[in-house]
Amino acid sequence: xxxxxxxxxxxxxxxxxxxxxxxxxxxxxxxxxxxxxxxxxxxxxxxxxxxxxxxxxxxxxxxxxxxxxxxxxxxxxxxxxxxxxxxxxxxxxxxxxxxxxxxxxxxxxxxxxxxxxxxxxxxxxxxxxxxxxxxxxxxxxxxxxxxxxxxxxxxxxxxxxxxxxxxxxxxxxxxxxxxxxxxxxxxxxxxxxxxxxxxxxxxxxxxxxxxxxxxxxxxxxxxxxxxxxxxxxxxxxxxxxxxxxxxxxxxxxxxxxxxxxxxxxxxxxxxxxxxxxxxxxxxxxxxxxxxx
Length: 292
Fold this sequence. Notes:
Layout: H1 30-56, H2 65-77, H3 81-93, H4 101-112, H5 117-129, H6 137-149, H7 153-165, H8 173-185, H9 189-201, H10 209-220, H11 225-237, H12 245-256, H13 261-273, H14 281-291
């Protein structure tokens, strides 16, 4: 088994539930203003609740992306930030509406410019990948930072990656570790894996195999295949844990079964050479084919 250096960028879009509605009425009618505002809030909450029920589906409502889109659209046009972000997601993925990346960016930007952290993160992704906008790492970092500073775990993780890769300017592993730590402590499995890498190789922190294994295990507990592959190597080499070939193969298989191609290839090599397992040419071929 070989160690692999570097930080792997895993991009995923998340949706965070939040709802803030503001209705403006003349100041001279305070009681009526309060009643109307409360009524508007309640109505919007009901629209959003129903929209998300259709979007995700539940025990009483079958998933219906088109109905979800219609309801998100209604709420978004009334200025609801969460709905605007959901609408951007619908346009981005083509769920309930024809895929339209430019419209996705439009709605992400609407919500992002009003401070909705998840939309700021999503807009950062668009600039990072060049989806719906011209690729612009400076803008990507700008929006990731906006989201990160509001405590958005995905934004924090991606900002850490930008510092580690140099997309945020010069490489700064101290800043990378700072943001990975922030995100990892919130339970982000990608950040936990990246933080483990930093401790393992000494990027921005003093090399510490025990801390590397600690954060790697945190990530594996959430099913992160890349972390499972990395933990297998730790067990194989005895870095941060007692050397244990059975555990190495266990975690390697876990990762391979999640279609991690590096793990599949390495598991094939183990079966071919009899390293940690009984030699089995058929199993070797099986995993090599899975990785191909």
